Amino acid sequence: MTAYKDLFNSNIRISLKTAINILSAYPASASTFIRLSEAMKRAEHRRSLNAACGLDVPPMMIVSTTDECNLACIGCYACERGKSADGLPAERVGEIMNEASELGVGIVLLAGGEPLLSRGWLDAMTRQAEMVGLVFTNGTLINETYRNWFAENRHIIPVLSLEGGEALTDSRRGDGVYAKAAAAMSGFRSAGVPFGVSVTVTSENINTVLTNEFVTENVDRGCRLFVFVEYVPVAEGTDTLLLTKVDKMRLSEFAAKANRRHGALFIAFPGDESQYGGCLAAGRGFIHISTGGDVEPCPFAPFSDISLREKPLKDALQSELLRVVRANHDKLTEGDGGCALWHNREWLTSLLSANK
């Protein structure tokens, strides 16, 4: 039962060690990640103690910080979800971050909408110096103020979203978006702030983004992290963008080879979950917190039976929905599109109905 946790923790440690080597050209960031590697060991120990008491605490937490966005990208899962309840009060956000750190969560992914439009989670992240923060942004709002903010908070890494080159990015995200993201990259490089790039991999861009040319171009710009996210067809009529099983294998193999070849860290999401015995959602590897505070198995599975508005994170991690999903992780095979839970959403709906 603990074998997958040992493997997942080992892979986190390896990634942090790789990050320290990659960031050697950025002394301030390298020293921060040396400190963070020790913090991750302490977080792992806290998770182990909780597991011994029957509480599964994931290493990672994904947060949709806001529904607001200054773009309307084609096929965006956040756009398809529509507006949820009002965001959590800043005081509660800070409490949740403290609770997560105390339980052993070590990595927080801040997404949206556009996370730079909501300061609550960003401000709370600055106070969590023993956690790694990744801010997934479209890059169009990056200015000198934000460059300085990231420079002052080296445990928080900006990750800019691209679809490939200018034509592919602008066709999905809007005219001029690529140029603004490229300008943000240039600004980060001039300021000595390492950054990452996130790419939603589809049938349309896979032959562009899984190339040494695409990687080298962005490494030369200063990119030190590549996150390849398999497209999930949450928008009706976008099934043609799905990756085939062959494409998914190709993505995993490319990321593995790129980690050995380039001076950057490469992560495929969800990646090869078979090595962990199945789906990592619902607290096995990560959870998702919606804008309104609902605790969900995954960003692509907007189902919840508990809210952080009323309950502490420790109680939420023990929700019946999350427990059942974790218990059935081996039955949640990925299929096309990356997210096993999305392909089993009727089952998740039935679980919620049964628990009412």
Plain-language structure description:
It is a single chain. The chain is an alpha/beta fold and 356 residues long. Strand 3, helix 6 and strand 4 form a beta-alpha-beta unit. It has one domain: TIM Barrel, CATH 3.20.20. Helix content is 46%, strand content 14%.
Question: What are the salient characteristics of this protein?
Answer:
alpha/beta, 356 residues, 9-stranded mixed β-sheet
Structural topology:
Layout: H1 3-22, H2 27-52, E1 60-64, H3 77-81, H4 90-103, E2 107-111, H5 119-126, E3 132-137, H6 144-152, E4 156-162, H7 166-173, H8 177-191, E5 195-201, H9 206-209, H10 212-221, E6 223-230, H11 245-261, E7 265-269, E8 286-289, E9 295-296, H12 313-316, H13 320-327, H14 340-343, H15 345-355
Helix pairs in contact: 1-2, 4-5, 13-15
Give a short overview.
The chain has 356 residues and is of the alpha/beta class.
Helix fraction by DSSP (H/I, runs of at least 4): 40-55%
Structural category: alpha/beta
- Tally of strands: 9
Please give the CATH class. Alpha Beta
User: How many helices in DSSP terms?
Assistant: 15
Strand content: 5-15%
